[in-house]
Structure formats: C-alpha cells, structure tokens
Amino acid sequence: MPVDRTGLATIGILLMSTMLHAQSLTDARSLGLGASLAAIRDTRDFAANPAGLIHIRDWDLSVTTYTEPSYNQSGFVFQGISLGKRLFDGAAAAFRYTPGTNLTFVVPPVLLLGDSNLPESADREFEYREPFTAGVAVALSERIAAGIGIRNRQERVTDTRYQLIVRDTIAYPVASQETYNQSVWLADLGVQWEPSARWGLALVGRNLIRISSGDGNDVLETFRLPDKIALEGGLHYVPVSHLALCASASTAGIGGVGAQWLPGSGFAIRGSVLANRAEKNVISAFTAGFGWSYDVFDVDAAYLHFLSKGTHRGSSSLDDFAVDDIVNLDFHPYSRDRIVLSARAMFGRTRESLARIEGVTMTGGVYPAAREVFAYKPIGSVKVRNISSQPIHAKATFYVDRLMDAPTESQPVYLMPGGEADIPLTAVFNDRIGQLTSLTIKEGDVFIHATPAEQYDDRAQTRVVFHGRNAWDGDVNTLRYFVTPDDPVILKYSRDVLLDHRDSLARVDGLLEQFTKARLLLASFTGRLQYVNDPRLTADFVQYPVETVNLRGGDCDDLAVCFASLLASVGIATAFVDVIPPGNPDQAHLFLLVDTGLEPRFGSAIAQNPKRYVIRRGTSGKDRVWIPVETTMIARGFEEAWSGGAQQYFDDVEVGLGLAHGWVRIVDLD
Q1: What is the SS3 assignment for 363?
Q2: What is the pLDDT at residue 298?
Q3: Are residues 545 and 664 in the same domain?
Q4: What is the pLDDT of residues 631-669, one digit of tens each?
Q5: Residue 471, domain member (yes or no)
Q6: What is the DSSP track for 101-147?
Q7: CATH number, domain at 538?
Q8: Tens digits of residue pLDDT in 186-215
Q9: SS3 labels along 254-310
Q10: Structurally, how many domains does the chain consist of?
C-alpha cells in the first residue's frame, strides 16, 4: 500500500504551532493586589521581596492552588507551599516548594517527505521550573530590613527524533529520545523601608548572582530563559486606615498598580492592573481578589484576566514565539486566565504587635523620702507609636524589681494608625526603698499594652536613678516627706515630755494649752542639740527625725523636720518657711511656723508685741496665731529661738516682701 505522503505533510503543517503551558501566578493575595512588592509581610510570595519576611511573628505557613477556567482540561493544581520562621527579634527565614511554578512548551515535528529517501524529523519539549526558593531577612534598623532570596531554576530539553521506516509499503515512525538538563541558582537582594506607618518602599535586585550546572546543548542554550540583572521598585501607601494603594515596576518591563479596601469584619477586597512591555497593549491584564482573615488564619481568592488573548490561548506560532519575553515564570505573554486560591496559618507567638516603644525618658532621680509622690506624679514617660493599621488604646506599665510590689499601670491613650503619644509613668515603691543608703541605679521595666491584645506589644528597659534615703532634691515641698510624726521613737519622745509636765499642763489655761505643749517640746531640746552642717557639705542631705534625736544635732533642714515631727505627733500644725534671697542662693535658710491654736483676738495672751507672731490661715481654714521659730537656736532656749524666728520673718516677709516677690515660700504640713 503506497504511503499517503500528502496526508503526512498536512499533519505536519497543522502541528507547526508551539504549544505552551504556564502555571502559577504566586499566591492569591499578591495576585489580587497586583503590585505587592512593598506590601509583603509574611511567607506569601516572599520570593518577590525576601526582606518582607522580617514581619513574620513566629511560624508562618501558606499553601496555594489554582485552576485555568478557559482551559477545558484544567482542574485545580497544587501550586506550592511555604514555611517561614522568625529566628529572633531581628531575623527571619523561609523556604518555598512550588512544583506549580513551571512553563512547558512543545515544538512538534514537521514531516516533509522527499522522493529519494525518507528524512528524519524531531519534536522537542522545553520545560522550565522554579521548584525551590529560600529567603532570609534581617532588620537593619527599626524601619529598614534587607533580605536575600535564592531561587533554583531547572531547565530541561527532551529531544525526540523520528525516522519514518517503510516496510512492505507500510510506513511507520521510529522514535529515539535524548534529554538535556541544566540547573541554575539565582540570587536576589531586597530592601524594604517603612519611613512611617503609612508608607512603605521596596527595592529588589534580581539575578545578582547566577551559578549553573548541567549538560551543554546548543538547543538548550538557544531556548534558555533570560536571567539578566534587573531592578524592581515598589511603593505601598495607606492614605486612610481601611485603604492601601501600591505600585511596582521593573527594568525587565513588568509593572502594575493595585489597591486594597478593608470594609471590616476581617474582609479585604483587592484589584489591580498589570503591564508587560512584551505585550501589544499597554495594559495587559487586570486582577480582582477577595480575602478574609480571622485571628491566625487567612484565606484568599483572586482572578487574573488578560485583555488580549493572542498568545494567552495556550498555543502560538513558532515564528511568534520569543523566549526573551519570558522574564518571569509567573507572568509572561503566554500565561492563561486563572483563578488562584490560597490559605495561610500562623503558629507560635502569633499575636500581631499593635504598638512600639520609640523611647523612654526619666524626669529625674527618686528620693526615697518623697516616694509617695510618684504614685501620682510621673517618674518619667514613654513615647509610643501605633504600628498597626487600626486605631488602638495603648497603656504603659512600669516596674522596678524588689523596690515595687507590683507594676503600675497608666490610663489608656487613644492612637490613630501611625500616631505617637507620650504616656506618663508612675510608680508605687515599697519600704525597701528606705534601705538605700547611697546613690543606686536600678533597671526599670516599661511594658506597652494595646487593646484588644492581652500580652504586651513591646518592652523596654530604662535606667532609673535612686538616691539614698537621706537625699533631698532641695524643693521645700518635698521636704514634708521627711516628717514622720508616727515614728515610734518620735511618739515616745513627745509623750514622755508631756507626761513629765502633766502637773504644770493641768494648771494651764485651756486657750494656751497648745502653745504650752509646743513650748515644752521645743524647750526640752535646750542644751541637747547643736547646729551642724550636712555631713556631705551640701543642701541635699536631710536627716530623719529619729536620726536627729539620736545624733543630737543637724542643720536647719534637719532640725525643722525633727521639730515639725514632734509637734505633729501631738496634733500641733506647723509650716516650713523657705527663704532663698534673690541673687544670693547660698544664704538660703529654713525655719518653722508653729500654730498656737489661738484666735487672733487672743494674740496678746502670748506676746504684747504683735511682731512676735503671725496671723494666718493654715490647712484648718481658720485664722490662727502662729509663732516663727528659728530651729537652729533651740539649743539656746525656746525664747531665743522664738525671738530669732520672729526677727527673721519680719525682715524677710514684712520688710523684704519676700513672700510677695516669691523668694519666700510657706509650705503647710498636713
């Protein structure tokens, strides 16, 4: 039977088109967003920019599948799986296995039969795959991260040769096959910079390093995919909390713009337009996507549609086929429309941090005598920034080990995305702080909590300076914290003095009882105390009353505190008079005002000279007769101390108008 050569030639002409099959356009979130280069924050499509891995919280797992609805024989195909891990605070790594990232095309044989003999013919199958990708990201600063990605590209040519054999007028082909393989390792370097919570910038260098191994073959070399160095840039912008815009472009001629809207309840709606200069149209495709997040899980779907079918139908003329146009196995002129589904799950420490500490400032040292004031007066502040895409309530806690029984917590502060606030830090110190006899530095822990989180979002340590228990900051308002009328030694001393004079007190007019008690207590020190300078020759060392009693001496601050404590222990109100002469602070001095309990109309009962007492309203809210007492003169007797105090008050307040001009202050002691 003769060979039907016309029929064979017709079959060859019909098979002259090049058959192509391209798989996978990354994961559904990246596809829907279209230009996610600067918006990568986990293992989803980390190969596009490995620097984005720095945002992984702990373990991060994602899987992807796809289908091509325009391709009748296409079902859902497993695209790949990615696994990432945060190594420590400043680094993360990930690995991706993607059997679905490949491109296969076939050049069928062309049979042209001559008259003299039967020629040989061949078909070739070209397959390109990128099955493995690994990446490592490192934080260069709080806002800048860099990453290195390594991709493995495998290229294979299967060369099938046919020879037509005719026996007994029957022609049949005989095939022989050879396979050539090449493995290429390509390295990319990415940088991600977030100058603020609203802006993100990315820069990626592609194919910076190329290492290949495998068979040498002219056909393989002719159809080898291009791997020239390319530069890609991306931008991510959040104008409002529920909207994100992004754009990217590459020197290889691929780019796009996209947007994401978050309507709430964990839903996300995405869309983009894509461009490829290898296409005839400026805009080659558009995408639409949908996502939903709940706690540690994300599911996404996206649809890719090419505007001009052309080569996107799955076949192309060999004359129109250009391997140089395939710069990305995920997006090129021969890809088909597709639907991509992906899912992501997080494990380990999965809660996203909502706030970050920008800095901690301490206002000054802690004076143990005034420790109670820090329960409501800030000891410092912490600057906090909202690093999330939603408004938060942030509050700070502060704790110093051993010196505090429990951390103190601030009131919550409302912060918009990207907003900053200084949150005051307060502290409630325990009695151990009174055991610090010298200047000490402790570590204070500052924690930031942001709702709805239950764990702390960020933590910092700051140096806290604690002064010795006798240290004083020089402010007369804080000197009151050295007054200890409930000290057992002070209580015993004052009661012993009054008990020794109970007979004389019983004969005193009731109007003068409080004045007489004050005189007896102060006079009991006559000849027992002496005025001495601070042991450190400074104005910041104050003795507690019990120390002054035991040491039988002190400076004006020590004696004023001691006598104020004694008088307060029997219910007599006192006030400090702080004198700081203008232009001469070295002559600063402190003396005492004592409430006699007398109404102003009875002032003459204690002194005929009205300059020896003061009519003033104390914390009781009523006008009373007060006497100035120069505590440093007590050793010479009560009368001299009273006279010296009265003269000092007259000179500084009445004549010098120090109270009116502000260089004399009177601080009532509760």
Answers
A1: coil
A2: 93
A3: yes
A4: 888 888 899 999 999 999 999 999 989 998 999 999 998
A5: no
A6: -EEEEEE-------SSSPPEEEEEEEEEEEEEEEEEEEESSSSEEEE
A7: 3.10.620
A8: 999 999 999 987 899 999 999 999 898 877
A9: EEEEEEEEEEECCEEEEEEEEEECCCCCCCCEEEEEEEEEECCEEEEEEEEEECCCH
A10: 3
